[in-house]
Amino acid sequence: MEYLIALIPALGWGLMPLITGKMGGSEANQIFGIGAGASIVGIIAFLITQPTVSAGAFIFSMVCGALWSTAQIGQFVSFKRMGVSSTIPLSTVFQLVGNSLIGVMIFGEWRGAKALLIGFGALLIVIIGALMTSVSDKKGDSKVTTSNVIFLLATTIGYWIYSSFPKIPYLANQSSEGIFLPEVLGILVGAILYELFTGNAKAFGQKEQYTNILGGISWGIAAFAYIFAARSLGVNVAFIFTQLNVVIATFGGILVLHEHKSSHEMKFTLLGILLIVIGSVATIFA
């Protein structure tokens, strides 16, 4: 049963970009949908589990959730610029590399020469895999441009902060269920502030603002299930399962959202995804 639970995060996070892609709308519509849908899941989960959380941790978690929303907005913009099948592999790599470096430099992970060798070797494999997924037959016609990649990398900083905050000693004694609700409420608050301060208030009257809540529910269920997967199988094993989301989202973008790739590009994408998964798994042994 625990392995079935561990598949939920990969499925939910892999389906989210496909759902929002089908629902359409602007990035403002989509980030609001994620925040609202995830908040619905968070409220239900909070009522069922009834965890305790301090006021300080509640506020701090909300701030981190709001920072996550900035990264997700960048990803939604990138979906439109480069397509889901090109954005997800690159985003996965940026998150993995950034989180790993933060873990090494700030939290003292990968101690010893052997661990560093395995860790950085695995990251190199992941980077090569990402480069392969961006191969295009038509030079100069690829949507994976330097400016688009830099934009995605810059907005990924929000993901790094979000991924790192549970490791902060201030939250060490807080339950995962307790900080889940303020996290997702922070995403919703971040989405609302984004719409108000960027002149997108009209989005509240658009249908896509609310149909994208389905994507948020998918994301929220995945995030909450990961808490239990990590608890029953351990963070390392649970993390391996989450890497399947890049497979679902990438090929879903091609099959469901009809993002075209030639047979030559598809070969490189297949091999690139394989390397990303292998490299991601290998970091666990560092």
TrEMBL record:
One Pfam family it belongs to: Sugar_transport
Primary gene name: glcU
Keywords: Membrane, Sugar transport, Transmembrane, Transmembrane helix, Transport
Chief location of this protein within or outside the cell: membrane
Alphabetized CDD domains for the sequence: GRP (cd23110)
Protein name: Glucose uptake protein GlcU
InterPro entries according to UniProt: EmrE-like, Sugar_transport
Membrane topology, from the record: Multi-pass membrane protein
tRNA-binding found in the keyword field: no
Record localization: Cell membrane
An example Gene Ontology molecular-function term: carbohydrate transmembrane transporter activity
